[in-house]
Amino acid sequence: MTTLGNSANIFWHECPVGQTERQKLLNQKGCVVWITGLSGSGKSTLACTLGRELHSKGKLSYVLDGDNLRHGLNKNLGFSPEDRAENIRRVGEVAKLFADAGLICVASLISPYRKDRDSCRALLPNANFIEVFMNMPLSLCEGRDPKGLYKLARAGKIKGFTGIDDPYEPPLNCEIEITQKSGVCPAPCEMAGQVVSYLEDRGFLHA
Ligand SMILES: Nc1ncnc2c1ncn2[C@@H]1O[C@H](COP(=O)(O)OS(=O)(=O)O)[C@@H](OP(=O)(O)O)[C@H]1O
Ligand SMILES: Nc1ncnc2c1ncn2[C@@H]1O[C@H](COP(=O)(O)OP(=O)(O)O)[C@@H](O)[C@H]1O
């Protein structure tokens, strides 16, 4: 299947230094850790804690955070289903480039629609797309409400808010699920530890 969009007369150019050489240099394997979940479920917290944990192990990672990317690359997008799909598509493509560069790319977005997440997965060899589901109840996320957005959504001042009047489709086939244990959310370092163990067990932390 062609990966070409609307452009004609363009050709792929191979470079002599490829992913394998970069991975050897870094002593790690490039991959995408895709964190999905409701607003307030702890995506950014996990992404940052994981980034710090990997850094302390001498591993190069980069966090693509939905909120942050909407200040630049995705500043022209809103929250309609079409805009969310385009948001996820762009981040999926950027994440693929980071993985090709040999980095552990940590993407942290609500990414509420299964189809959009699966399209990102399809951009990479399946093992290199690690979907992490922040499976936290809406009541917990809404109780946290660090930005006051749930309150605004409940008051009808934000329309189409995920979990309130816009759907969140949980993954059917995620690699890692972060859940409460006996009604308590694991500490950020525990959540990050779960992901680091997965990466270690699958050989991503060595070339
Ligand atoms: N309508 C609506 N629905 C959901 N979220 C909203 C909305 N409007 C603004 N926000 C804020 O935008 C952040 C989510 O951006 P994302 O790029 O991750 O969203 S998406 O993946 O395109 O659905 C999200 O950040 P997080 O709370 O970190 O998830 C919200 O702060
Ligand atoms: N494991 C955790 N334990 C306790 N509080 C947490 C945990 N993870 C996140 N939080 C808190 O919950 C709020 C939302 O977390 P955040 O990472 O911003 O979520 P998201 O990126 O999914 O919107 C923040 O105030 C954060 O400090």
TrEMBL record:
GO terms for molecular function: adenylylsulfate kinase activity; ATP binding. InterPro entries: APS, APS_kinase_dom, P-loop_NTPase. It catalyses: adenosine 5'-phosphosulfate + ATP = 3'-phosphoadenylyl sulfate + ADP + H(+). Pathway: Sulfur metabolism; hydrogen sulfide biosynthesis; sulfite from sulfate: step 2/3. It holds the Pfam family APS_kinase. One of its GO terms (cellular component) is cytoplasm. Signal peptide: none annotated. One of its GO terms (biological process) is sulfate assimilation. The keyword Ligase does not apply. Keywords: Amino-acid biosynthesis, ATP-binding, Cysteine biosynthesis, Kinase, Nucleotide-binding, Transferase. Residues 29-178 form the APS kinase domain. It comes from the Eukaryota. Its EC number is 2.7.1.25. Catalyzes the synthesis of activated sulfate. Belongs to the APS kinase family. This is Adenylyl-sulfate kinase. It comes from Oldenlandia corymbosa var. corymbosa. The lineage of its organism: Eukaryota, Viridiplantae, Streptophyta, Embryophyta, Tracheophyta.
